[in-house]
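Quick one - first record:
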Amino acid sequence: MFDAQMTRKVNYTIIILLLAIGSCKHEPLDAPEGQTTGNGGGNGGSTDTTTFCDPDTIYFEQQVLPLLVSSCAIPGCHDPGTAEDDVILNSYLNIINTADVDPFDPDGSDLYEVITEDDPDKFMPPPDEYPPLSAEEVELIQTWILQGAQNLSCESNCDTTNVTFSLKIEPIISTKCQGCHSGGEPQGGISLTNYAEVRDVALFGTMLDAVQHTGDATAMPYNSNQLPQCEVDLIRIWIENGAPQ
């Protein structure tokens, strides 16, 4: 008798617990700041971990790589075809593996040493051939190394209003293009050092095809990934509007 009553009580308890568990509703966890959640897991879902740009963080893909590709990974220097001194500066792995980058230690990194070198024979880019990196660009590389020389990427809001040369296009050209297209012997004979030069190429050349990697134009940036879609869109809108200053 006692055993039968106890068995019924245990069974009732189990049923109540199962009903309670089945009725639980768990609120989704908030995404970490700068990220969004998705359907992660093993059932074919994907997790969106887009990082939005933090002004205090240096992002390799958006800031460091375009600078090195434009100023260093050019034909005759540190592109894959030339690989001067066995250094190739066209991708994260090549930069880390061939430029002796020591995370958190700029002074112990050859990449930083050569852009701050006092000896003109060792200074990079070669001063008799190309313009030096600006103080801001040198500081950018220094800070990237101090932050661990990480392969970070981010996304920012794309503001396609008021697309003028001075506001939206000049920063792209100076960072992503002038390393190759400036100086006494610019690549392809195309100089992009001021508004008039950029406007002429944009309106009468193949700039849009080059940055969109379409048509017969040589894809730009040379030997590198396409510009972020936002920057491509800004260049397209600027050209379509007549390349205003």
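second record:
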Amino acid sequence: MSPRVTVLLAVHNGEPYIRRCVESVLGQTFADFELLIVDDASTDSTVATIKSLGDERIRILANETNLGQVPSLNRGLREACGEIVARIDADDWCLPERLERQVAVLDAEPRVGLVGTWMDVVGDDGRPLDRLTERLDSFAQFVYATLIMRVYVSHPSAVYRREPVLALGGYDEATGPAEDKDLWRRLALERWDARIVPEPLVVYRLHDRQLSQVQAAHQRDVDGRSQERFLAELAPDAPHRPLRLLLAADPGLWRERVDAEELLAGLELLLAGGQERLRLDPAEAAEVERLVAGRLLEAARSKPWRPLARALAAWGLERLPEAERRTASAAFARARATAPVADVLHRAARRAADAADAVPALRALERPAKRSRLARRVYGKLVGGR
């Protein structure tokens, strides 16, 4: 009889982390699973370590050559036995109740196709750096998070239904290393909902290889193009790049030559198209619009002296409930009043950061703080369009 869940792990040269990862999966309280490991032509002792555990729930697929993470995941998807797939990476590990909690959500809500968890982020030495604690409690929240490029289901914590993902063609191999966010967008377009279990059930290990600036820049580029395809599905005639930058609160928006009237008209096209394409009921559509209005005010407060910011703020204020409108209007007024001082402080902070980078002792002190901030971005879906 086939297991209900396939825990899918793709790995290339996973020492020295692989043992802890695999043992954490084998120790789950939910027992009906297989651990499917796609070894992507490792040249170290990864496979030997896995085999030494001697557990019959482990199944290893060996790539003859190094294919990369996303093709390896797609191979695993095709050969998985479970109706549910749970992801994990070789340098991470999970708590014993992880699968039990996530499968319970899928069982309780048939239209939920994707479930994440809170995650603890640790350094290479195991010391705590951060905890990712976002929530997704409704389809409107999932849509909004997707629109603003904050898809909070982190890939190593993801559990999803296998058949809908296979129907979409699996992971798009052209979108790595943002393949997870691209897949979540395509699931949303099919009206599959998402949830997050509000417990830290996965531990994500942050290390230097994940902080490569070259890789991060490539990820932002790929992710941005995927997001623009998503926006085009909702509103083909809208200005997709400026809308992406706006909804992601990306500073790049202010470097664009953007006509405020055209941008806001495009936003209204996007909201109307989203309601139709995603089959939002009136309450869901109203909630998405309210959340987007708040987002525009957030973006406007970053450059409140700009004419575009004033137009964004006016649009957002008009669509907020009265109680929220008063608070948001006061916050925007304060931002306009303090903007010159804030701009000076920001510039001073940037100069201080540049100085720290030039001095080894300061650079050593700054590194943990940088990692703490970056931890929120890695697989936590906080990179967005930035």
